[in-house]
Structure prediction request, 225 residues.
Amino acid sequence: MTLYTLFQQGGPVMYVLLGLSILASAIILAKLMQFARSQIRRRAFIDQAHAAIVQGRYDEALQHLQGQRSPVAEVMACALRCGMDPRMSVRDVEAEVSRVGSAAIRNLESWLRGLSAIAHLSPLLGLLGTVLGMIAAFMRLQEAGSRVDPAILSGGIWEALLTTAFGLTVAIPAMAAFYYLEGEVDHVRAAMKDASIRVLTHFGKSPARVETRDDAKPEEEDYGV
Prediction:
């Protein structure tokens, strides 16, 4: 039995699931390429740039960060520029670094929600196809009247179950890829926060110790959220 025959027997829902599987594959490949180009796993430049900052070689550190593709380097460079600017208060620095970090995270998270939607919708579509197939099988059984052939029912059932199987086949890899990609984004978010705070602490502008007006308790900013 050919793949085309299976799709014909599974009904129109199979073609919808095929379209979703192609879209999910495209999203996964695009995100993997984006993450590879962004060098999101590279972290060595953080310690190198921080060492230059501690030694007061700000221009060298900034040039080194600007030569990196990582979004962590982008946020770290923003923190360095803000820290060197005496006109910017702690609140101003907090807002600017958060803005840059949030934009970088949104770029990394693009299309991930669509991938999650495909992973959640595919089993439901497969179940819908199975229910429609079962309805059609029982309708054929009713039309047979007294000349009931068990093969009619069994054949209709396995044809209906094709959509459920295909829906799960699409959903499982899509969900696994979503959690992997989401985990990579979380690691980048944590690295952004750590790197920016290390830079701003050197200039005494870290928002980790900002006092509120009400209770004067420390407030911590989560960059990139």
Summary: The chain has eight helices and two strands. Confidence is low (pLDDT under 50) at residues 209-221. The longest strand covers residues 210-211. The two ends are 51 Å apart (CA to CA).
